[in-house]
Design goal:
- This protein is an alpha+beta fold.
- The protein has 2 domains: about 10-140, Jelly Rolls (Sandwich); about 150-250, Arc Repressor Mutant, subunit A (Orthogonal Bundle), CATH 1.10.10.
- The chain has 9 helices and 9 strands.
- The strands form 2 sheets. Strands 1-8-3-6-9 form a 5-stranded antiparallel beta sheet, covered by helices on one side. Strands 2-7-4-5 form a 4-stranded antiparallel beta sheet, with no helix packed on it.
- The two termini are about 35 Å apart.
């Protein structure tokens, strides 16, 4: 299998099957994967000036942080699934993948539709997410970190992101000089450690803004920002939109 992870750890966020009556949004990127399938024509999305029709003979997988717009020419019956996945599927390149809607997907989606409001819905939804991820081109995925020292510090960041994490603490964990550690971390992740920490915190904040009823103050505290003002400043700087506006648009926008 050439090192591909065909059984990734997946966290299912939501799965819905509904009729779109209105679906015209200009949308920021979302920090999770999405699967779309429509039973009839009428819905469209745009990404990088490409207009993509959601046709019944195709199924679509949308990578995290893929900013897109949506349009509706006619009411359309729409299935969507939101989920997150672990490395190497947690930081892929943005993109929209169109796959033929074949028998395996059709059978799984029929199971999902039959059990959409029951506890049994989760298993077929997870099966479909796994099947879709296995089709993502290898070159679009994050290159797995090979250095055990950097892996150890990334694991520490994900477990302690709510805390203040200075570079010298991470360097001690990696048993390295601080400057040498920063260079090695940047080499393996593409960004310095403090930027990695901030971006990881913001991804967690986005999920909480959309899927929890926590206040912005609570989210700022939970995700390791010192206060709401600093959280809002960092969120707006990186996302080009404030957290309150993000929450409104995330809950009313593209599903």
């Amino acid at each position: 299998m050439s090192g591909r992870f065909f059984n990734p750890e997946i966290n299912l966020l939501c799965c819905e099957y509904l009729t779109l009556q209105y679906w015209e949004y200009v949308r920021m990127a979302a920090p999770f994967w999405r699967i779309y399938h429509n039973d009839n024509p009428g819905a469209e999305i745009t990404w990088q000036e490409r207009r993509i029709k959601l046709s019944p003979d195709s199924i679509f997988l949308i990578a995290p942080e893929t900013a897109m717009n949506s349009f509706l020419q006619a009411p359309s019956r729409h299935l969507y699934i939101h989920f997150t996945a672990q490395c190497p599927y947690d930081l892929p390149a943005p993109g929209i993948y169109k796959f033929p809607f074949t028998s395996p997907e059709r059978d799984i989606i029929e199971q999902i539709k039959k059990s959409i409001k029951s506890d049994r819905m989760g298993l077929p939804a997870l099966a479909l997410a796994t099947l879709m991820l296995a089709r993502v081109p290898t070159e679009s995925l994050e290159t797995p970190i090979s250095d055990k020292r950097i892996l150890k510090t990334v694991k520490y960041i994900k477990e302690h992101y709510r805390e203040k994490i200075p570079n010298d603490r991470l360097a001690n964990i990696a048993a390295m000089n601080t400057n040498a550690f920063i260079r090695l971390f940047s080499q393996h992740t593409g960004i310095p450690p403090q930027q990695y920490i901030t971006e990881y915190r913001l991804r967690q904040a986005c999920l909480r803004l959309q899927y929890s009823d926590d206040s912005i103050d609570e989210i700022a505290e939970h995700t390791g920002f010192c206060n709401r003002f600093y959280f809002t400043k960092q969120f707006t700087r990186h996302r080009k939109i404030g957290p309150a506006r993000f929450r409104i648009m995330a809950r009313a926008g593209i599903e």
